Amino acid sequence: MAPNDSTASEGGTGGTAVRRRAARYIVPVAVAGVAAATIGLVPALASTGDPDLPEITAQQLIEKIAASDTQQLSGTVRISTDLGLPSLGGLAGSFSQGSGPGEGGSSADPKAKLTELASGTHTLRIAADGPDRQRVSLLEDAAEYSLIRNGDEVWAYDSGSNQAYHATQKGAADKHRGAEEHGRPAPPPESVPTTPKALAEQVLEAAGPTTSVTVDGTARIAGRDAYKLVVKPKQSGSTVGSVTVAVDAENGVPLKFTLLPSGGGKAVVDAGFTRVDFTKPAASSFTFTPPKGTEVTEADDAEAGRTAEGPQGLGILPGFGAEGHEKAEGLKGVEEPKVIGEGWNAVAEITVPGGIGLPSKASDDDDVPAEARQFLDALGDRVNGKFGTGTVFKTRLINVLMTENGKVYIGAVTPDTLVRTADRAS
Q1: Phi, psi of 12 (to 5 degrees)
Q2: What is the CATH number of domain 18-286?
Q3: Domain 18-286 matches domain 318-425 at the CATH topology level
Q4: What is the pTM of this model?
């Protein structure tokens, strides 16, 4: 189809499973609703080689996504992520210390396992039967990791280590209410978007006057006819070039999500179904019994263990080593981030309590482990401005400026935009 040049503002236990207590975990249940303002009303036009579908406007296509009531599906998703990060090397061990078996954690803990989706190419098998039954399985070379929700019961199982993680949704709800009763912001549901739909809804939720939304042709995805919805920033300075969402022409389910960087090159995120079936999955997809000999971590104790050990992974930063826990404790008083700018150029400013900052170069600080110094120096560029001196840590999507005086600026903006924003805020 030819481009549309209209733009817009937009189960139980079994065997001899060994149980341990650990931290509460909230499995992804729902993603925020789709929001869009005035969408271009010029319909997409058919062209040779693409599925010949009825004309549709961007407004109508977004309404189709929002109105989709498809709650039963199964299939295979291929997701590739390239943030442009250097190899972690030995640094990975620095982050994982204190979170392994016998140290208050589990290799099956979803908080740690699903972060693997932040880089490389992965294959997922997914299944859903309404809002209370979902399964996501991460397929690995010689093992499989599965995250299963069946009503209030949540299980995660790592076949490679024969470890399981168990939690209940009721415990998560109690934690949510407890935070509100003590006058603290309730913690948001912890989620890692693993489907094109979840990714698409997060982008469309943010659509506003700084966004162009158009229909730009059709495609064939996993054997299904689809329209292509293209979302682009109207502002310069964003690291996001465009987001393309292939939407099932029949039921409005996003089938593929592609985020291209403004700097060019291959996609930062490319996630799409290679196989999809919209019939009801078998009930057995959502049941789980730990195999004999599985080490089971229960969800209520790991958080206590993590709290006792201090913030995980912060040992790589100055002031957060084995002797820097008193500074880490100060993070409990961190202020809510201040948002500077709007739309795609919005930057979050965070003030670290006590003015804890990074040295001008990580390699100048003896408290930083060698692997961390190499990693941080590979990522960072020293910069100066009205804010003083700092280091910009770069990826292809998110950039972070950490200053020596304890200010942190984060956004999906170019390093130059980030520095200019910090200057304006100083």
Answers
A1: 65, -175
A2: 2.50.20.10
A3: no
A4: 0.73
